[in-house]
Amino acid sequence: MEIGNKRENYEGMNLGKFSGEREKILKEVKLDPDKMDGFMKTGQKEDEGIKIVLDLGKLKNKFSKMSGKSEHMSGGGEKREITINTGLARKAIDKLLKKHDSSLEMNDYMIPANKGHVKHMCLTFGRLGSMESNYLEAMKTFIAKMPAAKFTILTSGEWNKEKIQNFVNQWAKEGTISNPERVQITASDNDFSIWAQDSTLVVGNNVVEQDRMWFPGRGDGSVASEIAKVNPEVKHKKMEGIFIDGGNQLATDDAVFVGSDAVAFAIKDMKQYPSKYNKILGELKIDNAKSLSQEELVKTMMDRTFPHQKVVVIGHKGEQPAFHIDMAMTPLGKLDPETGKKVITVGDPSMALNILKDLKEKSPKKFASYEKSLNEKLGGYTEKPLEGLFEHLKDDKALQENFDAVAKGLEDSGYKIERVPYLGSSSLRSHPWITYNNSVVDGNNIFIPNFGVPELDNAGNGVYKKYGYDLIPLDMTAISSLQGAINCITKVIERDYTETA
Fold it and tell me: Which burial class, exposed, middle or buried, applies to 101 when counting CB atoms under 10 A from its CB (0-12, 13-18, 19+)?
């Protein structure tokens, strides 16, 4: 049986040819826009209530029988209507239930990434070329700023292992990092990309090798098994039929946000390999598969796979706002102090475009200096990267409509939405992908992409400061030109959720 992970679809560090292939799949599958928009609803708002009518007489009779008393009230007695606030009820239950100290204890949970301290992180190191210095600076910052965390670094070959080990030794000698023994470097014969996030899902104590349509590196499909080889506390598991790239999901303790591409890719695979899905549907005990639409069937598969978290499919009319949703949005582990609502940041292309337009018109010399700085960080490949982004996206109404629709859909479901600058395109090479999502939360710290354009950086950073985060900005100019950022190059294997962590 051929599964997604056996395909020879890889295209180096960029989306490359897969961007066109993705468009073909979406046109072929033709997702139902209304059904897909319905999947973005997260259910009842936290401030809504359920009305229940209680028959007090009948209740009293039942309690009397249970206690062995013969007291009886005829006629049903008084009826009373009460309202249960589901949001408050859930919060009360959360306090009563035992909290998980470690994500490894959370069986069948996609690891919640919006809170807790990082206890174990995986990085992958392979071909990088001129972007290597940007990546190494990020690696050094992770190790330095998370002094209690364990790191597993998978390298392509012994030569790269030796290179990374030399850097770790140097950083320790300089006093930049502490306890270098917590950094475990493992060489592999596999050819890895730097995108540790995407080819693995972490579900409880399982590192999952899921189905994918493409791989940036030939060896990326083996990341999960390589992690498990050197970390006995986790187990390698294969998961068929779930086409969720690591960067195309964002999990909290009660929800898993998944990009709509996951539905399209599974439908495409289902049509090619029907016998494979007969087996999967049997294992998931989906008995009514024939009565479900193709979209509903895939959604049900995801619901059964992650039973403790509400699966929320992100996209507008079957089209997600970015190639991976972690570039487009971030669920925070904080509540809005005014409304008590959970907060999600969502990208806003118009915000970035307006900031750049204002800069060009009012401070052309400053704008030119930013262009020069960005070009240098990009290795001199793109003379005017900001101008290129601006011209390419200024008239992209569909992109803005998609982001606005996602923001409104989440807001209608009871979330507090904060907008942050966003400017990126899969069709542009050697340009930065400006996003203030794609971050990593570590307790009250948040590692956030920055780009050396203060007017943009301040607008993005300010949202997270508003909610009390301590920012650790990382310049992602070079790495983002490969179409990824901080979350993309990391994979958290374990989080610690204890209060004192």
Answer: middle
Structural contact between residues 103 and 251, judged by C-beta atoms closer than 8 angstroms: no
Interstrand relation of 249-251 and 255-259 (parallel, antiparallel or unpaired): antiparallel
Number of C-alpha atoms within 13 angstroms, CB side, residue 116? Answer: 24
Cβ neighbours of residue 252 closer than 8 Å, sequence gap 6 or more: 112, 113, 114, 115, 309, 331, 333, 342
Q: Specify which residues 208 forms β-bridges with.
A: 201, 237
Q: In this structure, what is the dihedral angle of CA atoms 447, 13, 171, 200, given to the nearest 10 degrees?
A: 60
In single-letter form, the type of residue at position 446 comes to I
The position carrying tokens 């408050």 is 88
Cα–Cα distances (Å) from 405 to 14, 317, 452, in that order, read 27, 9, 29
- Tokens standing for 112? 């919640």
pLDDT band at residue 3 using 50, 70 and 90 as cut-offs: very low
At 425 the three-state DSSP class reads: coil
39 near 245, Cβ under 8 Å?
Answer: no
Strand pairing partners for 449? 474
pLDDT at 488: 96
Judged on CB neighbours under 10 Å (0-12, 13-18, 19+), 51 is exposed
Quote the tokens at residue 74: 């005829």
Q: For strand 416-423 and strand 434-435, is the pairing parallel, antiparallel, or unpaired? A: antiparallel
What's the residue count for the chain? 501
Degrees (nearest 5) of the Cα angle 112, 185, 211? 45
pLDDT of residue 450 exceeding 70, the answer is: yes
271 DSSP 8-state letter: H
Please check whether residue 417 is in contact with residue 411, taking contact to mean a CB–CB distance below 8 angstroms.
yes
Place of tokens 């002094």: 147
- The packing angle between helices 17-29 and 261-272, to 10°, is 70
> How many CA atoms lie within 13 Å of 166's alpha carbon, on the beta-carbon side?
6
Tell me the pairing of strands 235-239 and 150-156.
unpaired
- The pLDDT tens digits for 321-334 are 999 999 999 999 99
DSSP 311-341: EEEE-BTTB-SSSSGGGTEEEEEEE-TTT--
pTM for the model stands at: 0.87
Q: What is the DSSP code (8-state) at residue 489?
A: G
Among 419, 269, 279, which Cα is nearest to 343's?
A: 419
pLDDT digits (tens, 9 = 90+) for 258-312: 999 999 999 999 999 999 999 999 999 999 998 999 999 999 999 999 999 999 9
CA distance 212 to 3: 9
CA triplet 220, 223, 226: central angle to 5 degrees? 140
CA 153 distance to own-chain centroid:
21
For residue 486, give the nearest of 174, 56, 194, 102 by alpha carbon: 194
